[in-house]
Fold this sequence. Notes:
six-stranded antiparallel β-barrel, 9 helices, seven-stranded antiparallel β-sheet, Pdz3 Domain, alpha+beta
Amino acid sequence: MPRFLSLLFPLLLYPFIATAGASPQTTQGNLAPVLKTILPSVVNIYVTGSINVPLDTVDQEGAPDESPQNNGHSSMDIGPQKFENLGSGVIVDSKKGYILTNAHVIAHAKNIRVTLTDGHRYKAKLIGTDPDSDVAVIQIDPENLTAIPLGNSDLLHVGDFVAAIGNPFGLGQTVTSGIISALQRNNLGIEGYENFIQTDASINPGNSGGALINMKGELIGINTAILGPEGSNIGIGFAIPSNMAHSVMEQLIQYGSVKRGTMGVLVQNLTPELASAFHVSNTQGAVITLVVTGSPADEAGIKPGDIIVEVNGKKIEDSGSVRNAIGLLRLGSQINLRLLRDGRLKSINLVTIDPNKYIEKIASRDPFLFGTEFRNFDEITPTQGHVQGVQIISTQEDTALWRAGLRRGDVLISVNGKTISNMTDLKKEVSTAKRQLLLNVLRQGGAIFVVVKQ
């Protein structure tokens, strides 16, 4: 199955709303004059490439062999397999030939071909792709191109009339109409960063990367996914807002990628119950549930229980709004947060940092124990009697303890010759160590010594 099909039908396990009707037609007059000027800006995209496919043992009919001996799976690959994919795109810069589309449309592509409405075909160059937001930018020779005007997706309202333009099922350019059914849809599990416009305008396979326009002919979204059983359209389609797509596009054009920063917090929606518990009347916002030690948020004085109501002047509706607002900023960006703390507004400034550099910073503070979870161990065992120490719950790959061979279930009972009974003892002894640790470890009824180096 082509990649775009999986993205166009990413929620097949969700409940389906069987009462969704057909897309309504606009009553605001004839769309033809508007469409005449912008249809040339929506293009068809054809890609070819190859991808390594895991070998599912198949029978002679080509169906998976689900016999008990094979279980329908194999750890082997059958090597590079050629594929073809169809999608749509939108010309956003006629002078430079930039085209917006979905990242999943051009994923793994070796060749990208663009066909205009007048039949002209161009070989496209990939400028940049961001799978987390499902936005990509490609480029063709800027020759007699028509760019679509960008609308402001922040000004949309539920009930606004819209039209979707694309290349469904490879049939060629097609226009469908409907209304905006909902805004700021997130937590759907379709993309990493979600702030979808929901529409009942028909969106089908091949529409991915196409335009969602308002009645002025302005681009207000990039068609991305639908919710429907067995490939059918039931009037639930999703588009990436134009403002979000444009923000990602600017980074892709300038840098070729999106490098996101972090501020080091976890958040949750501000429910009416939480609002009452925090003694605030507003239910719009996101509650900070955790501040990571040593993060920009921690250094700026942010605390659990603070309620984020604005990020860089933009109101925050829920936790998804915070994730999107921060996720669309490049690392090193300045952030101004408006917080509610004890019923009072506070303004806090901070700068996002590279998550990888942040991890390196934390690891440098605790090079021996970083990346490992522990618990106090105090049990009577049949082979070793009463044992007190610290047990490893989990350890991340390529950390000091992991490289030394320590794994889940190991119990540390001494560090550099000093007996330890709990986490306090462990941290005390490790804090005085220089370049290495000598650990006495109990494992599966036996005991070993292990040397751990930074």
